[in-house]
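Weekly sync, protein design subgroup
Attendees: M.S., D.O., the rotation student, P.L. (late)

Item 1: inverse folding check
M.S. brought a backbone from last month's batch and wanted to see whether the design step gives back something sensible before we order anything. D.O. pointed out we never logged the input encoding, so this time it goes straight into the notes. Structure tokens as presented (249 positions):
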């Protein structure tokens, strides 16, 4: 029995390694839901660059405003573009699914749960992963989403990114230089430097992480208070116990 178990485990181990390897992406990020400035900037970027095509069906303007501490009039003046939309509505795009299908060949999916579906590392890498590819109708391809139908909407900020080979001499190993030509490099800078752009994409991903699980923001803020309460309560309970048992010992 034991032998069979060991055999089974040795059989399964490489499989889990393959599964983990398949999910690996070039960049990683750690969401920080307590960083309100980052979340606010992420929301601003989302509204300006993404909401034209993608909805957040399960997120209301009012909820985001409350959680991220953005005043209602700012939301109404700067975030709600559609004349039919109100403060309490869901953050929907005004583009219909049919138009999306016709224009891009694939309707832009709802992004409410995208951070939970793909993970934030993937999302972050995806947004950093657009590069020039003249064979594509949009002129770009994506390092983690092959043949993607989405145009590189952040190009004004990032600039033009291309696949390049490392400069001669940078790598001694000539044999696999073909594979090395996968390095992405910004060849014409946009409004932001590469570091600033990574910061902006971090904020955007952070915002989408919040949207995927809005209650986590409050839960995390509450956690230290709960721990302090538990600590104080433990001290009281300890003295109470001493008091009760005093006569028995
Ligand atoms: C001009 C329309 C358009 C805009 C603007 C746009 N997207 Fe997209 N996006 C698409 C389309 C179309 C797809 C579907 C791609 C496919 O299936 O090949 C897509 C796919 C995606 C996906 C992959 C989703 C999945 O689960 O397959 C993510 C993530 C995404 N977009 C994020 C964003 C973010 C973040 C922004 C804002 C910076 C943005 N998009 C702006 C059109 C757009």
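Designed sequence read out in the meeting:
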């Amino acid at each position: 029995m034991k032998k069979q178990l060991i055999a089974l485990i040795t059989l399964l181990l490489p499989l889990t390694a393959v599964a983990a390897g398949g999910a690996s992406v070039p960049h990683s990020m750690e969401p920080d839901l307590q960083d309100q400035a980052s979340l606010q900037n992420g929301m601003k970027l989302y509204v300006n660059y993404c909401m034209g095509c993608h909805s957040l069906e399960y997120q209301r303007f009012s909820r985001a405003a409350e959680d991220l501490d953005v005043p209602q009039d700012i939301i109404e003046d700067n975030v709600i573009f559609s004349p039919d939309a109100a403060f309490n509505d869901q953050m929907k795009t005004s583009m219909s699914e049919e138009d999306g299908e016709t224009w891009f060949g694939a309707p832009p999916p709802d992004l409410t749960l995208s951070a939970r579906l793909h993970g934030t590392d993937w999302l972050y890498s995806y947004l950093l992963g657009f590069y020039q590819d003249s064979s594509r109708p949009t002129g770009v391809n994506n390092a983690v989403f092959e043949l993607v139908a989405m145009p590189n909407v952040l190009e004004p900020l990032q600039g033009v990114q291309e696949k390049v080979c490392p400069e001669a001499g940078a790598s001694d190993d000539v044999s696999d230089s073909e594979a090395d030509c996968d390095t992405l490099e910004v060849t014409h800078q946009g409004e932001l430097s590469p570091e600033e752009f990574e910061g902006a994409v971090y904020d955007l991903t952070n915002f989408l992480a919040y949207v995927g699980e809005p209650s986590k923001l409050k839960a995390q803020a509450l956690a230290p208070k709960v721990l302090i309460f538990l600590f104080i309560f433990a001290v009281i309970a300890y003295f109470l116990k001493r008091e009760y048992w005093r006569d028995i010992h």
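Discussion: The two ends are 53 Å apart (CA to CA). Residues 49-50, 52-54, 100, 104, 106, 108-109, 111, 114, 117, 123, 126-127, 148-151, 153-154, 204 surround heme C (CB under 6 Å).
Action: P.L. to compare against the previous round before Friday.
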